[in-house]
Structures
1.
Amino acid sequence: MNPELLNAALTAAGQGLPVLPLRKGKVPFGNCPACARNACGGRPNMKTPGPCTCPAPCHAWAAATTDPDIIGSPAWARVWREAAAVAYHPGGARLTVVDLDHADAVTWARATLPTTRTVATTRGEHWIYKGAMRSVNAVRDGVDIKSTMSYARWLGPGIGAMTALPDVVRALAVKEPAPVRPGPLAVTVPAQGGACRHRTPVFLERGIAMAEQRIIEARSAIHTTVYRTFLAVLSAHGRCGCLTEMHINRLFVAAQAKGETVRHCTEAWTNARTRLGL
């Protein structure tokens, strides 16, 4: 067993980060014989977030855990002997890592993104934000986003205060224009006094953030959860003209991170608008 890596894993897990060992090449360990070709029946196609049911860490990010008894268990002892690094599942800790792979990418981030906690890497930096989103590689040259259903190397706690996940990072995951253009909302109905109360940034941001969280944390009935969440957002903001394309994209990104297709998202959004008469 590699005590240095094991201690690093326990340290990270103690900070609430679900960890897993990596072998040479910074890749997860292959499936054990009992789980080869999904014979164990667990985590089909690795699409469902949550802990692995196999005692060995052979399901990549889905095997990540914060349980010290599992991390130090005999089932994990073999892989710790062969491990080359420690990784963690950012989405499992409600975090997003912007992986900057070279100096130019770091320069771009410093000029473009809100400051947050940073961790030095071999060739660049990890910028860590509070909040989960869909993981996407190569959003621009040397920049990957690692959050749900992904893993990042654990290289220490980093420096600086952690910032809430900003819209500018979420927007990086949308490589094309908005996947759906729902058309103009109903005519704005101003609140009493002539100003829409929803236009206060805090009120609207809190509502969208809560909707994203509800979708991301769903463990079953994903279709129903997405529809009901869309319905709730439209009930609160659909008649006042506050929702922007960016807000709608954030909801779609959260739903797609749970396995929903663009078509399902579009149908759910359209059905919610129809039910509300928008």
2.
Amino acid sequence: MRRAQVDRDAFNQAARLPYELRTSDFEVAMQDVYDFLFDVNTLLLGKGLHRFDDMLRPAAMSGIISDMMTASLAKFSRALVENKHFNGHPDLVKRGAYRNDSVKAGTEGIEIKSTRKPGGAVDTHGARQQWMCVFVYKVDNETEPAMHREPMQFTEVYLAEVVEADFRRNPRGDLGTRTATLHREGVLKLRSNWVYKL
């Protein structure tokens, strides 16, 4: 089994990065996730079990990757910490901007999302002005035998400041949760400030 590696040449050195972020913060945070998955999958395969990537449903995988990227970026960032409010917004907050670095709905920080959809369009729980970072990744669920599958790999990272008008609201049935997604111009705004592209 191969350990994934971040491609340093795939970073956009001209990307606009808020809150004192550096491309090196993204590099080590992404490698943290790669190393975790390599260690876990080595253990699972050694026991004759499925890879972590194959066990999880896509939505669960995206949630875990978002949480891991939030924690890793907070670890390496100079000015951002994890939002200590359970399910608070945004995921990363500016250190010291909120009491105990905890806020239910704040504006100082970055919301982290991940998706398998190329281009970075992703559902959110509401249209709002925010810095939004989207990690696009791919998972090999097809190569056979499964022990030869490629590791999960980040293919794109986008980071942009968006506003409420950049979203479209998605209709939902009686049992669905209302979501919002960047509309065409909003997605173009997000993609214009790409951080990483393979």
3.
Amino acid sequence: MKKLTFLLACSCFAIAASSQQNADTLQQTGRDYMHKGDWGNAIMVFNRALQQKPNDISLLNDIAYTYFLQRDFVKALETIKPVVESDEADVQSFQIAGTIYRAIEELKEGARIYTKGLKKFPMSGMLYDEYGELLWQKKDYDAIIQWEKGISVDPNCAGNYYNASRYYYFTTDKIWSLIYGEIFINLESYTVRTAEIKNILYDGYKKLFADPDLLKSYDTKRKNEFEKAFLTSMNSQSRLAATGIDPAGLIAIRTGFIKNWLETYAAQFPFRLFGYHKQLLEANMYEAYNQWIFGSAINAEQYQTWIKNNPEAYNTFNDFQRGRVFKLPKGQYYQNK
């Protein structure tokens, strides 16, 4: 009798495991359809998986997002609303719900969803990023508060740097658009957004050196020692911008800046981005790195000429860049917002 009971238990366990495996396999199949743009098959397969795993949050997220991609916003909301009102909702649930409300321009309800999500997940950089985008959609410039908060609590979420860099570029700021933009292109190195930010960086350096004395117009009421250190180190290179900004000039300016920074301020302000500059200098890849940033942004033809004339330097850096993971530690946040 004990042997029979044991066999029955094993049989039930095997059936349950098979069911779980089938549901997971179906979910992956549904995602494959979704990525191909075959919304109908994706929904059908997700629903089969949901029969095996009723009320599964991950599957409900997938179904809601597929309806969103299909632009069936009514069914998308019908699916995701019970999820975000439940205790089981995850970060992705709030992202999907917020995205749907932004798409149909129900921004008040979207703001409520993001606020609720951030109360449950206060360390989610993605939720701060998307909440900021919703506020920006409303022309509410408090969006920058959300992006800055996202940077401070989740320093490796690229979207907050992208949005903050663009925001500061259109203000009188001459510092954070450059810093956040460069961090962004190291976190997200090969996208359309990367190309956009490279152009902002190029124009941002022209904006920075528009006045020969970088400290002249600095608002001392901000009392931000990191900003003063940044401007002081850059100011020591101001003479190199006298004849204009081009890739060679920027390489010289930034090389002088980082050497000054490392000698004067690195101990006081540990900062991963500038530590990365030091690493590249020591590996003799700093010129190639700066060409990668500014060469294509300033003159794509000249950049291709540089690559042709410097194949070893280009290939060494390119292999390194694509093979490394750029990560920022917490605790290196120097904004005073």
